[in-house]
Write a structure and sequence with these properties.
A hairpin with a 2-residue loop joins β7 and β8. The protein has helices at 14-25, 59-72, 134-137, 153-163, 182-189, 284-302, and strands at 2-10, 30-34, 47-48, 57-58, 77-79, 82-88, 91-96, 99-108, 112-114, 145-149, 168-172, 194-197, 200-207, 211-218, 224-227, 231-234, 238-240, 270-272. It is of the alpha/beta class. Strands 1, 2, 5, 6, 7, 8 and 18 form a seven-stranded mixed β-sheet that branches. A four-stranded parallel β-sheet has the order 12-11-10-16, covered by helices on one side. The chain has two domains: 2-113 and 238-302, FAD/NAD(P)-binding domain (3-Layer(bba) Sandwich), CATH 3.50.50.60; 116-234, FAD/NAD(P)-binding domain (3-Layer(bba) Sandwich). It is built from six helices and 18 strands.
């Protein structure tokens, strides 16, 4: 695959899809590139209650609506892994494992990857009881006990989702307080089959061929115990997915893309959008906002 286009959008989550919609409405040629599936992490969210227009909608359903909308514009998602991005004169070359895309503008909207617990057994049991997607794998554990690790919105949302069909959810968090919305915290605390394991850190995932337990330690008392679970779902933060950008020196000390009010980096015509950008709030609505701003700025420069 070797393509020439006006704009290359890397990432087909809410930011990339929104940018695509705005650009196609301006009759600007776009290549939408992704490594995985359209919709990004929206696909892996059980239920969404804070996106305008929907009282409640499942993540996969919302992602499907996003995809349907870009299909109406005749957009095809191109799949590939970005290896590098180069700029020569006024042209970018987005080098993938399946060829090169050349364009005047690039919007980098790759989102984030899940942060690992980095404990013994985590890698060994990945796909054998350790999963980073409750929506994808939770149904395998109907009637069993599972553990969710984390204290933010994602952890609590997935704990609530799992509680609908598993026997028990152990919610393991290193502190007493949560970083999640208060409504979610109240729901979790009132759900009878969610047991809070607070002030606790994870030590190891244990088992033979499959997961049989999660060993945790109380950070205050030092007491260790084994939670008898068949699955562990870590939700302890994200790492920006910025593969290919290191040479362009547009990242902060944590690896997030630094942009201005137009979502542009210090490299002319290179934009960032969505969760991969350095900012205080990462939500679906803020990602769509970023995508719209970047697309409108590109449209103005293309007139």
């Amino acid at each position: 695959m070797d393509r020439k286009t006006d704009v290359t959008i890397v990432g087909s989550g809410p930011a990339g899809i929104t940018a695509t919609i705005y650009l196609k409405r301006a009759l600007i040629d776009v290549v939408l590139l992704d490594k995985y599936v359209p919709g990004g992490k929206v696909n892996f969210t059980a239920e969404i209650e804070n996106y305008p227009g929907f009282n409640k909608i499942s993540g996969p359903d919302l992602a499907g609506k996003f995809f349907e909308q870009i299909q109406n514009f005749g957009v095809e998602v191109t799949y590939g892994d970005v290896l590098d991005i180069e700029k020569k004169a006024d042209q970018f070359k987005v080098i993938t494992d399946d060829g090169t895309i050349t364009s005047k503008f690039v919007i980098f909207a790759t989102g984030t990857d899940e942060r690992k617990m980095n404990i013994p057994g985590e890698d060994e049991f990945k796909g054998k009881g350790v999963s980073y997607c409750a929506v994808c794998d939770g149904s395998f554990y109907k009637g069993e006990s599972v553990a969710v690790v984390g204290g933010g919105n994602s952890a609590l949302q997935e704990a609530l989702y799992l509680s609908g069909f598993v026997k028990k959810v152990f919610l393991v968090h290193r502190r007493q307080g949560f970083r999640a919305d208060e409504l979610l915290v109240k729901k979790v605390k009132s759900t009878s089959n969610i047991e809070l394991v607070l002030d606790s850190v994870t030590l190891a995932v244990e088992g033979k061929e499959l997961v049989s337990g999660l060993r945790v330690k109380n950070a205050i008392t030092g007491e260790e115990k084994l939670l008898p679970v068949k699955a562990v779902f870590p939700y302890i933060g994200q790492i920006p997915a910025t593969k290919g950008l290191s040479k362009l020196q547009v990242l902060d000390e944590h690896g997030y893309v630094i942009v201005d009010e137009n979502m542009e980096t210090k490299v002319d015509n290179l934009f960032g959008a969505g969760d991969v950008v350095k900012k205080n709030l990462r939500q679906i609505v803020t990602a769509t906002n970023d995508g719209a701003i970047a697309a409108i700025e590109i449209t103005h420069r293309s007139l």
